[in-house]
Write a structure and sequence with these properties.
This protein has 310 residues and is α/β, with parallel strands linked by helices. It is built from 10 helices and 14 strands. The strands form 4 sheets. The protein has a 6-stranded parallel beta sheet with strand order 3-2-1-4-5-6, sandwiched between helices. Bound molecules: nicotinamide-adenine-dinucleotide and (2S)-2-hydroxybutanedioic acid.
Length: 310
């Protein structure tokens, strides 16, 4: 199985690294616009093959998309990240043009690929990719919910003082500081509701910390995060390539689901060899429905800025 990752920067290279050492794909091609950068990252990762022990073949190219031909999955991480104090939405002006041209290039050589969109503002970039390419909705998947959910479980595990892998939970809605919806009502510690162990005040703090999880890391690092983002993309790609049918919150075109039309937003999806195989209705309560509608209003307002690109 072949994966192309466009953008060999922090997230793209980390994703390539995780895909390789976990043996998720047999071949990974990194593409970047910066001369020699993708080639260098691919060589560096390949030189881990005998120490972390993997057989995935990695290569890099400066913009030669013919090398990506026949990819099963293409991950788009190309574009700029935010700096401290910025929102993801402020990246749209530069990233929209990059994402659109990259999507065109990859499809020319891999017409059957499933596209995973990572560049921010991710929900709007997913919508742009879907509209610009005309691909069916199952083949355009925005990655954000997997990452936000892993942060949610991290903060829950800290509050519970229990291992993160014993915690279940998900974040839906937009992938934005104010548009994410951590579903605390449905989160559990090995099946027992977390509200059995944590006060509402603590749960509210966990939700708030989750929503600004990316901004907090951007403040600490000076650029946005990459380890958990790269690993979250690899987790999603694994479910596609190995047909695992995991339920992962992903940004996908909604056509009436969750009360929304003509918008890409995070909802729980079954992810398998066909990409988005099913959208799962988790039966939101009235407050969660209201939060989802408000989140959709914000994402839709951002999508309106695509007029000049689409
Ligand atoms: N959806 C998510 O959960 C999530 C998580 C983390 C980061 N992101 C987003 O992912 C993007 C990348 O973040 P990063 O930290 O890896 O940034 P980065 O600057 O480290 O890497 C981006 C790379 O894209 C390359 N690039 C730019 N234009 C290109 C083009 N036309 N073709 C090929 N490559 C091109 C750059 O040269 C650079 O190497 C940002 O937009 C960031 O906001 C999203
Ligand atoms: O925070 C960012 O800008 C990058 C990414 O969306 C994240 O959540 O880490």
């Amino acid at each position: 199985m072949k994966v192309t990752i466009v953008g060999a920067g922090n997230v793209g290279a980390t994703c390539a690294d995780v895909i390789s050492y976990r043996g998720i794909a047999s071949e990974v091609v990194l593409v970047d616009i910066k001369e020699g950068f993708a080639e260098g990252k691919a060589m560096d990762i390949m030189q881990c093959a005998t120490t972390t022990v993997f057989n995935t073949q990695l290569s890099g190219t400066t913009g030669d998309y013919s090398k990506t031909a026949g990819s099963d999955v293409v991950v788009i991480t190309s574009g700029i990240p935010r700096k401290p104090g910025m929102t993801r939405e402020e990246l749209i002006g530069i990233n929209a043009g990059i994402v659109k041209s990259v999507a065109d290039n990859v499809l020319t050589h891999s017409p059957n690929a499933i596209i995973v969109v990572v560049s921010n503002p991710m929900d709007t970039m997913t919508y742009l990719t879907l509209k610009a390419t005309g691909l069916p909705k199952n083949r355009v998947i925005g990655m954000g919910g997997a990452l936000d959910s892993s942060r949610f479980k991290y903060f829950l595990s800290k509050a519970l003082d229990k291992p993160a892998n014993d915690v279940q939970g998900m974040v839906i809605g937009g992938h934005g500081d104010t548009t994410m919806i951590p579903l605390t009502r449905l989160a559990s510690y090995n099946g027992a509701p977390v509200s059995n162990f944590l006060s509402q005040e603590v749960l509210d703090k966990v939700a708030a910390d989750t929503m600004v999880g990316g901004a907090t890391l951007t403040g600490l690092l000076g650029t946005s995060a990459w380890y958990a983002p790269g690993a979250s993309v690899a987790y999603l790609v694994d479910s596609i390539l190995n047909n695992q049918k995991r339920m992962i919150p992903c940004s996908v075109l909604l056509e009436g689901e969750y009360g929304q039309e003509d918008i890409c937003m995070g909802v729980p999806c079954i992810i398998g060899k066909n990409g988005i195989e099913q959208i799962v209705d988790v039966q939101l309560n009235d407050a969660e429905k209201a939060a989802f509608a408000k989140s959709a209003d914000a994402v839709r307002a951002m999508n309106a800025d695509l007029k000049s690109v689409l």
